Amino acid sequence: MQTRDRLPRGSSDGRRAPAVDVVVVGAGPTGLLLAGDLARAGVGVTMVERRDRESNLSRAFAVHARSLEVLDARGLADELLRIGTPVPSLSPFGRITIDFSALRTRFPYMLVTPQWRLEHLLLRRAEEAGATMVRGARATGIRQDPDGVDVELSRADGAADTLRARYLVGADGARSTIRRSLGMPFPGESVISSVMLADVRLERAPDEALNFASNEHGFTFFAPFGDGWYRIIAWDRRRQLPDDAPVTLEEVRDITRRTLGDDLGMHDAHGSPASTATSDRCPATGGDGCSWRATPHMCTRPPAAWA
Ligand SMILES: Cc1cc2nc3c(=O)[nH]c(=O)nc-3n(C[C@H](O)[C@H](O)[C@H](O)COP(=O)(O)OP(=O)(O)OC[C@H]3O[C@@H](n4cnc5c(N)ncnc54)[C@H](O)[C@@H]3O)c2cc1C
């Protein structure tokens, strides 16, 4: 992997010359795909990512047909198909079934695979095309002038740095610092809160590849990552806590029992130094946890049954 601890610099007299053509802030799927496209077109690209290493945690668990088509146009879909699980239909609320097999596409299904696998693929493509990565650097602000843009960076050790480019792309996610720096709004609303997400192991596999259960208590949703781990997304109507309240395995188990009727022998949500399998995936201290709570910021309303 190509990484840069030291930033590329322009001349130091007067206004610095841009050191690169384009800086892409954020190495999620959007930034990685764009960086790869630009680099393959011969544009000099530097990606800036606040994480100091590739993540093996995941938010998205499914790649949709249109995303697969976009990847296919770049020769990337087949590799993802080899490691993902195609799901031809989904029944999120019992009476409603979404039938992907009716889609007129080479990919008439939803492909279950964790987001980090897609990111890994996109990163490899971008770096092979010549894009470089600055890791462990958070963009904190920007300054524009007619010749380019200065991106202010803060390193994990607190050191400050500036990277100058002709153009900047903000691909730094829903809470984008770049968007805020430009004064751009992000309209939408949060209609449910305290949604729990956890990556867990199960003693008993759910009946279906994607398992969704909902009733008057809330909902639970399981998606398999194919490596023995499952993503669970759960919401307990009676238990609404702030986003920074830790998620416990017991509360995820509890809502699973009340919605699904069985906790499927759920274990290992947080990882433990005693277990090599989980400590590989979930460091017991530092870094990301393996479970968290969130209030999704949505631009559309979910089914009224949730509210
Ligand atoms: C729980 C959950 C489940 C989801 N499930 C699905 C799904 O199944 N299928 C699907 O298609 N989509 C799903 N999504 C949506 C999907 O995850 C997002 O659409 C996708 O991650 C957006 O990609 P992105 O690259 O724009 O942003 P992100 O993935 O958010 O990436 C932004 C990157 O920028 C970095 N960054 C942020 N701020 C800075 C900064 N100031 N400086 C430097 N770096 C910074 C972050 O570390 C991150 O790596 C889900 C989202 C959530 C939250």
From TrEMBL:
Keywords recorded for this protein, A-Z: FAD, Flavoprotein
Protein name as catalogued: FAD-binding domain-containing protein
Region called Disordered, residue ranges: 262-285
Cofactor(s) named in the record: FAD
Domain FAD-binding: 20-268
Entry's Gene Ontology molecular function annotations: FAD binding; oxidoreductase activity, acting on paired donors, with incorporation or reduction of molecular oxygen, NAD(P)H as one donor, and incorporation of one atom of oxygen
